[in-house]
């Protein structure tokens, strides 16, 4: 079993290195990276949650539930990523250029899982549920985000694959949040 894991890790590292894009692609990949950077999403989801539980929305509307699901999903995504990154502490690839935008020094030193990819997959899962017309665009953006993380040398392929799976599960968990729990959260935050 140990030999299998060593072989798997070596394959992961060599496949990931082979996917690193040339420097001429870096600016394009940086823009893709910015689309799901953590800080804007933290601020945005926090503001959306505060607004959604305010007195302006009473009684609960379908739009409010969408905002609550997105907000809860984003906040849980950030927590899951922080816990996993600090627990596993997989170093980033050696060829990573340390030029990330608005990074969190404690969490962003580590590679597993890809937070950008989990966030994109979670958002795509919610988008597919609430806005089915845009599900293919959301899935395409999620794929591009995952590819960009490996192409920029930020992550190994396995970090991104785990990010896809974790983000999908986070999206399903946010969708499974019962109406009564949403109302309970709303009452607490008032």
How would you characterize the overall build of this protein?
The chain has one domain (26-189). Helices cover 70% and strands 0% of the residues. The chain is built from eight helices and no strands. The chain is globular, with a radius of gyration of 18 Å. The N and C termini lie far apart (52 Å). The mean pLDDT is 78.
Summarize this, please?
The protein has helices at residues 2-18, 26-35, 38-52, 62-88, 115-130, 135-151, 157-176, 179-189. The chain is mainly α and 190 residues long.
Integer average pLDDT: 78
User: What is the count of β-strands?
Assistant: 0
Query: Which bin fits the share of residues in helices?
Result: over 70%
Weakly predicted, low-confidence segments: none
Residues in β-strands, percent:
under 5%
Termini, distance in Å?
Answer: 52 Å
Largest sheet: none
Overall tally of structural domains? 1
Helix-strand makeup class: mainly alpha
* Annotation field: number of helices: 8
The helix/strand order is HHHHHHHH
Principal-axis shape: globular
CA-based gyration radius:
18 Å
Set down the secondary structure blueprint.
Layout: H1 2-18, H2 26-35, H3 38-52, H4 62-88, H5 115-130, H6 135-151, H7 157-176, H8 179-189
Transmembrane segments: 160-181
Pfam families: PAP2
GO molecular function, one term: sphingosine-1-phosphate phosphatase activity
Key attributes of the depicted protein:
190 residues; mainly alpha; 8 helices; globular; transmembrane
């Amino acid at each position: 079993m140990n030999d299998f894991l060593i072989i798997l890790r070596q394959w992961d590292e060599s496949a990931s290195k082979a996917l690193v894009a040339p420097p001429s692609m870096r600016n394009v990949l940086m823009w893709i990276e910015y689309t799901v950077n953590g800080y804007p999403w933290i601020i945005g989801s926090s503001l959306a949650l505060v607004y959604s539980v305010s007195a302006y929305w009473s009684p609960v509307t379908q739009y409010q539930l969408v905002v609550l699901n997105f907000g809860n999903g984003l906040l849980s995504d950030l927590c899951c990523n922080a816990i996993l990154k600090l627990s596993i502490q997989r170093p980033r690839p050696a060829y990573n250029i340390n030029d990330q935008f608005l990074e969190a020094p404690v969490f962003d030193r580590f590679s597993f899982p890809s937070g950008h990819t989990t966030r994109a997959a979670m958002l795509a899962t919610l988008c597919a549920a609430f806005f089915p017309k845009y599900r293919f665009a959301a899935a395409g953006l999620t794929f591009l985000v995952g590819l960009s993380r490996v192409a920029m040398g930020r992550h190994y392929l396995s970090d991104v694959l785990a990010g896809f799976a974790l983000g999908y599960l986070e999206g399903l968990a946010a969708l499974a949040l019962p109406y009564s729990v949403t109302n309970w959260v709303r009452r607490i935050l008032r």
